[in-house]
Amino acid sequence: MKKRTLAVIVAALGSAMLAGCGQGSSSGESAQSTAQGAESVAGQAEEQGAETKAGEESAEVIQIDYPTFMCGTASVAGWFQERCQAFNEQYAGKYEIVVEEIPNTQDYVDKMKVLYSSDSLPDVVNTGGYNIIDMMQDKLVDLTPYVDEEWRSTMSDIGIAVNSRDGKLYGIPSTRQLVGYFYNKDLFAQAGIEAPAETWDEFFQQCEALKQAGIVPMSMDTADSGWCTSLFLGAMTASNEAGEEFMNTLQPRDYHVPEFIDAAAKIQRLFKEYTTPDSIGGDYAAAANNFQNELTAMIANGPWMVQNFYDTTKCEEGFYEKVGTAMYPEGTMYNAAQTGWHVAAKTPEKIEAAVEMIKFMTSEESQKLYLEVTGNICDRNLTSDKVYPLVNEVIENAAVSTYNINDYQSLWYANVVDEVSVQYPLLAQGEMTPEEFAAALTAAAEKNEE
Q1: Half-sphere exposure of 9 (CA within 13 A, CB side)
Q2: How many Å is the Cα radius of gyration of the chain?
Q3: Which residue among 59, 203, 321, 378 sits deepest, i.e. has the most Cβ atoms within 10 Å of its Cβ?
Q4: Cβ(222)–Cβ(425) under 8 Å?
C-alpha cells in the first residue's frame, strides 16, 4: 500500500476565546433595520413590529440557525466562539449565527435525527465527522452549484469524495482524521515494556505484562459507538491489505469478513481481560479520565486530546511528559477525511447565508486558527509554527504508516454505528460470539435501501 506523507503540522492550544454569538432559540429580536436607499418597505413594518420612514429600506438580518456541540469543555469550543463572533461582526446587519449549545456530540447527533424526522433540521449542521449524509441526504442541500473552482481548489480530493454522493457535494470538508493511540511511558516501564508493540501478538503480550504488574492495560468504552474501542476494532481489522480495503469501504453491508471477525474476537478478549470494569456501559469521558488519571496504560484517540495532557484540571502537572504516541500494530493509522459542514436551509436566502458561514469557517484564516487552538488537522494543507511535540509525533507516525484507513463513523451507515453500542456489551460479556457480532452489524446494514 502506498504510504501517505502529511505536510500538515498541528499546533498549540491558543488563549481562551470570547463568545459573541446569538444564543438559544431564534426569536427574531436581534433583527436590525438599516437604511439602504430610496425604496420604502413599510409593508414589512407590521411583521417587524416597527414602522420605517419613507425613503428608507428596512432590511431584516438573516439569522442562521446553528445548534452545535462546539461548546462547553469541547476542544473546539474556544475556536468556534471566536470565529462565530468574528463572522457576526463581519456580516453585521446582514447575517447572524444564532447558536444552540448541545454539549455532547452523541446528544447532538441524536437531536439532528429527531429534527430530520420532523423536517426541522437547522440551517447548518456539523456532526464532527459522524456520517448523516446517507440518512438525511434528501434534506441536505447539494452544494455543488455554490462551490466555484477557487473554493474547490482548497479541498482535498479525499475530502470531496467523503462528502459526495453520485457526483453531488453534500458537505464541505474541514478536518482530517489522524489517529493512533497514546500510552503511559512510566506505566510501560514499570511492566518492563520498552516500546509500543509492532505486531498484535506482541501487543497482547504487553497487555499481559501490564496486568501482571498490577496495571490495567486499556481504556475502553461501549456507549456512543464505543469510540476508543472501535478505533482499536478498525485498526485490528486493517492489519493486512484485505482488512485495509474493508475499512476503507463506503457503507459496507456485509461484516462477515475474516479480518473483521478476528478483530471482534480480539476486542472481546480485551474486554474480558485487560480493561476497567466501567468500560461496559461507559462512554468516552470515562475512558479518557481513566487514562488521564493513570488508571490505564493506553487509550486510542486523536491529536485533539493532547491539550488535555497539559491541563492541570484534568491531569497531574507534568503528565504530558509521561505520554508517548504510537501507530497501531502492523503499522496502521487512521489517516483520512471526515464529513464536514452541511446545509439544510430551505429558502434561497437562508441557503446563501449558510454557504457564506461555511466559507468563513473553512477559510484559510479560520482553519489555521483551528490548527493552533484545537490540535485538529485541517483538510486544507496548512502549517503553523505553534506545535505540541506530541502532536508532531502523531504526524510523524502517520508519515511512515503502512496501512491507512478511514474513520468508521464517516463510512458506515449511521444505524450500524448506533448498533455497535447495542452489541458491544453482549460481546464483552461473552453473550455473543464474534461471528454473531458481525451478523448483527450486517443485519443493521441491510435495513438500508440499496
Answers
A1: 10
A2: 23
A3: 378
A4: yes
Output the CA angle 44-32-56, nearest 5 degrees: 55
Q: For residue 11, what are the contacts with CB-CB under 8 A and spacing of at least 6?
A: 371, 372, 375, 384, 385, 386, 387, 388, 391
The per-residue pLDDT for 10 is 32
C-alpha cell at 77: 469550543
DSSP structure string for 44-113: GHHHHTS---TT----PPEEEEEEES--TT-TTHHHHHHHHHHHHHHTTTTEEEEEEE--SHHHHHHHHH
Q: What is the CATH number of domain 60-174+338-378?
A: 3.40.190.10
* Cα gap 115→127, rounded to integer Å: 14
Cβ–Cβ under 8 Å, residues 101 and 71: yes
C-alpha cell at 154: 482548497
Give the model's pLDDT for residue 436: 98
Query: Consecutive sets of 10 residues in the chain, 450 residues long: mean pLDDT of each?
Result: 33 34 40 34 40 46 97 89 98 98 91 97 93 94 97 91 94 91 98 98 98 98 95 97 95 97 98 97 96 98 91 96 98 91 98 98 93 83 77 87 89 92 97 98 91
Residues counted in the chain? 450
CATH value of 177-335+397-446 in 3.40.190.10, 2.130.10.10, 2.40.37.10, 3.40.50.1100? 3.40.190.10
Helices then strands, counting H and E runs in the chain, come out as: 19, 14
pLDDT at residue 450 in the model: 63
Q: What is the pLDDT of residues 241-258, one digit of tens each?
A: 999 999 999 899 999 999
Give me the pLDDT at residue 59, please: 66
DSSP code at position 37: S
Residue 81 contacts by C-beta under 8 Å, 6 or more apart in sequence? 17, 18, 19, 20, 21, 70, 71
Instruction: Answer left, alpha or beta for residue 72, where phi above 0 means left and psi between -120 and 50 means alpha.
Output: left
Q: Where are the domains of the chain?
A: 60-174+338-378, 177-335+397-446
Mutual angle of helices 258-273 and 434-446, in 10-degree steps: 120
Cα(70)–Cα(76) distance, integer angstroms:
6
The reply to whether domains 60-174+338-378 and 177-335+397-446 share a CATH topology is yes
- Which of 171, 195, 198, 174 lies closest to 185, judged by CA? 195
What does the block give as the cell for 372?
Answer: 493552533
Q: In angstroms, rounded to a whole number, what is the distance separating the alpha carbons of residues 326 and 328?
A: 6
- H or E stretch covering 353: helix 348-361
3-state class (DSSP) for residue 226: coil
The answer to whether 391 touches 176, Cβ cutoff 8 Å, is no
